[in-house]
Amino acid sequence: MDNSLFEGKKATHEALTKADYKRYEGEYIDVYFKLEDCIHVAKCLINLPEVFNVKRRPWVCPANASAEDVAKTCDLCPVGALKYIMHDDIQELDKHCESPDEKIITAEDWKNLNS
Ligand code: SF4
Prior knowledge:
Blueprint: E1 5-6, E2 9-10, H1 13-18, E3 22-24, E4 29-33, H2 43-47, H3 67-76, E5 82-86, H4 107-111
The structure holds iron/sulfur cluster.
């Protein structure tokens, strides 16, 4: 699923914000998330845990992997709860979020995803 699209067109910040997506800014890509649409199949968490980690706040840190990997992982989201907008620049790794080791995800973690 191409999650750079929203309602059949390239996603824009304005359209996603209006549709209640929350933005997680990165240097080369911004990720948008809509909790109400998430069905918790955890494809994002399994595929790219350094970026998607419900044990950490913010739970999405786009700068923790290449923009290409972030985009590919967002595309795995089967319901469009994750969207993204690529910036135009070259992608580089710029880590600034910490990733705890805990692997067990609790119901509480899911409930707090919008933080
Ligand atoms: S955001 Fe998408 S991929 Fe991640 S857990 Fe929710 S439904 Fe699954």
